[in-house]
């Protein structure tokens, strides 16, 4: 008798330990067929279309497929291998085809349209109204009204895009994994902290090599660029990092970039939009590429003078210190750190002993407890996909279950770089039961060594708080429908809960909860807290310009017709011109490794990090006016933002929380770009 595929059985927690790689593809294919049956039942119904038998039925269809694919694609990001990548390439076109089968199903659209046209006579609450509108728009915006011939073109484009995006990400991961810098002469490692060198020696030992190995993974790359005195080695590493996907070889992404940008444009035109950005931004707070462009340029106007002043100061500092003629990109972090130490007598090596990973995790849990009454208890009987993963049950003040929380902190060869929050199971209400969510954060922090535990840089501390802010958005979701739950909000609103939580990393009241020396238990000294606060705006102009440059590069690919672009590098040079500070490096290209926009969901949306900073600065000002642990403001934020997901337009939710629309002034004040 054939054994049943574990992924097709009923389960609450993902059964990682008993899933075999060969289970994924058949489970996904069978779940697609099951979802198709559910769609056919809606379409074939002889009953008059109603909100319940059409809109709600569609919303709750495909649940098995959603669970299986969420597990599979999360594993493909956090613990992948060649087999899993091959399956991803095989199932992505199938899933794209299925999505189009639904969107382009004439009978289904007729039923949805029928309900939509009667919406004013239906007694719907706000969440139901939003769901109806979103379902109707999902169809009209994605080709339901197109003639059959054009629908075929759309299917072809979507299938091709799903493959290209996967290939792009696989190439970046392979490029990151294949490079290593082996140093055999310890004299060339001057400036590097001992703990960092120990980690590099451990990596070399694991690979049966003598010396120290540095890689392009962030916990290895960033400290090297910040502390290594050997300028030639910094240059070598920077050139390797900046040229990922840009080597004219089998891992080259230039063709993928051009194809993805052109296909997105063709898709948008097919659907009646001026560009991919016009298509995307119709469903964002920013609304149009023109508004985004105006926002970016307004920020550029405010930040550029400060950035140019800071750059000049950094350049003069480097000249005086080391007689550097021309500041290059591989000098930025190194001299930035040196100048910071000189001005504030503060550096990560002084701070890291106070940021033991376990203490920071405990700290972010305590912040969540003080703000939202959440309790986190580590559990060891939940299946994990890797031994590094930690699992916690989350409960509220009454002991009721709120969520399951997974956390995965260290780099591995099968894990893509960066940090992200993701979901294994959405929150929703069905048949009177409030299904609670399973939320995960994935990071790439410094590993513990034989001599020391995992000690975080301050930047890693803010990253952990950032991703945990996203996690809170998922955990505290309290909506009826899964597609409107948690972080299923406009993409230029989704960064508010994450970015606002970073502010607690700079506050004495918060730091004293968890910043304790890992050896002595001594609380972080007040002078360090003062210096962290004081240095918060250090080189803020340059940092702002960098973020704006990414947003502008994104728009340059997606707000215009990219079909005339023949040379990825030349296109990029032109896009970066308004924000340029450092000389260009001919062998480097950002677009070929810009996973956020070419693999992830940030195409035509990278500006949203800056946009959300406006919201977060305005939100945190509100907290500081009443106290950073004000229960009143936290309750308002939870009630109007965190629990509501995408049930209403984000500006309405924000105004209900704050009492007014946000203005950039709070951000500009916080960044020191305008006076208080």
TrEMBL record:
Record keyword Protease present: yes
Domain Peptidase M3A/M3B catalytic: 224-672
Keyword Zinc applies: yes
Domain of life, source organism: Bacteria
Cofactor(s) the protein needs: Zn(2+)
Note describing how the cofactor binds: Binds 1 zinc ion.
Keywords: Hydrolase, Metal-binding, Metalloprotease, Protease, Zinc
Protein family (similarity comment): Belongs to the peptidase M3 family.
Protein name (record): M3 family metallopeptidase
Annotated source species: Gramella jeungdoensis
């Amino acid at each position: 008798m054939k054994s049943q595929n574990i992924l097709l059985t009923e389960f609450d927690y993902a059964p990682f330990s008993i899933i075999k790689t060969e289970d994924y593809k058949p489970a996904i294919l069978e779940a697609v067929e099951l979802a198709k049956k559910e769609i056919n039942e809606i379409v074939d119904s002889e009953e008059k279309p109603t909100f319940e038998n059409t809109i709600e039925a569609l919303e709750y269809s495909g649940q098995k497929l959603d669970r299986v694919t969420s597990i599979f694609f999360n594993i493909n990001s956090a613990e992948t291998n060649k087999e899993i990548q091959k399956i991803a390439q095989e199932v992505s076109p199938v899933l794209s085809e299925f999505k189009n089968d639904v969107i382009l199903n004439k009978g289904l659209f007729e039923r949805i349209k029928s309900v939509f046209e009667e919406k004013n006579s239906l007694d719907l609450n706000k969440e139901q109204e939003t769901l109806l509108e979103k379902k109707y728009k999902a169809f009209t915006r994605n080709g339901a009204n197109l003639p059959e011939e054009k629908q075929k073109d759309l299917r072809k484009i979507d299938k091709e895009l799903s493959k290209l995006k996967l290939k792009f990400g696989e190439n970046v991961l392979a490029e990151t994994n294949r490079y290593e810098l082996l140093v055999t002469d310890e004299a060339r490692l001057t400036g590097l902290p001992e703990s960092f060198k120990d980690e590099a020696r451990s990596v070399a030992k694991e690979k049966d090599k003598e010396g120290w190995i540095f890689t392009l993974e962030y916990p290895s790359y960033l400290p090297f660029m910040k502390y290594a005195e050997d300028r030639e080695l910094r240059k070598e590493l920077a050139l390797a990092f900046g040229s990922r996907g840009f080597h004219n070889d089998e891992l080259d992404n230039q063709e993928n970039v051009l194809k993805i940008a052109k296909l997105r444009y063709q898709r948008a035109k097919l659907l009646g939009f001026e560009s991919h950005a016009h298509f995307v931004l119709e469903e964002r707070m920013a609304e149009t590429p023109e508004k985004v462009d105006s926002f970016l340029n307004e920020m550029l106007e405010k930040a550029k003078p400060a950035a140019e002043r800071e750059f000049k100061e950094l350049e003069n500092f480097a000249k005086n210190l080391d007689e550097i003629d021309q500041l290059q990109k591989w000098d930025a972090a190194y001299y930035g750190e040196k100048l910071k130490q000189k001005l504030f007598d503060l550096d990560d090596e002084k701070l890291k002993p106070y940021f033991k990973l376990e203490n920071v995790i405990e700290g972010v849990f305590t912040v969540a407890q003080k703000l939202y009454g959440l309790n986190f208890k580590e559990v060891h009987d939940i299946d994990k996909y890797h031994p590094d993963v930690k699992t916690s049950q989350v409960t509220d003040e009454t002991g009721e279950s709120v969520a399951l929380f997974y956390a995965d902190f260290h780099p591995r060869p099968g894990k893509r770089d960066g940090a992200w929050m993701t979901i294994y199971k959405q929150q929703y209400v069905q048949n009177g039961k409030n299904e609670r969510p399973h939320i995960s954060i994935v990071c790439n922090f410094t590993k513990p060594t034989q001599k020391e535990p995992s000690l975080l840089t301050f930047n890693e501390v803010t990253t952990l708080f950032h991703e945990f802010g996203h996690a809170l958005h998922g955990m505290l979701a309290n909506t009826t429908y899964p597609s409107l739950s948690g972080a299923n909000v406009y993409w230029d609103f989704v960064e508010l809960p994450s970015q606002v939580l970073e502010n607690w990393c700079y506050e004495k009241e918060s730091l004293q909860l968890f910043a304790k020396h890992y050896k002595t238990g001594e609380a972080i000294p007040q002078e360090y807290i003062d210096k962290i606060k004081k240095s918060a705006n250090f080189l803020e102009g340059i940092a702002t310009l960098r973020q704006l440059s990414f947003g502008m590069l994104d728009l340059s690919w997606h707000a215009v017709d990219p079909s005339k672009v023949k040379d990825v590098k030349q296109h990029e040079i032109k896009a970066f011109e308004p924000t340029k500070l450092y000389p260009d490096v001919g062998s480097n290209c950002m677009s070929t490794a810009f996973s956020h926009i070419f693999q992830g969901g940030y195409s035509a949306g990278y500006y949203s990090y800056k946009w959300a900073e406006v919201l977060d600065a305005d939100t945190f000002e509100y907290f500081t006016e009443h106290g950073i642990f004000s229960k009143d403001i936290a309750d308002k934020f939870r009630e109007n933002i965190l629990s509501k997901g995408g049930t209403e337009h984000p500006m309405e939710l924000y105004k209900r929380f704050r009492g007014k629309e946000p203005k950039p002034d709070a951000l500009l004040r916080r960044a020191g770009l305008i006076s208080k």
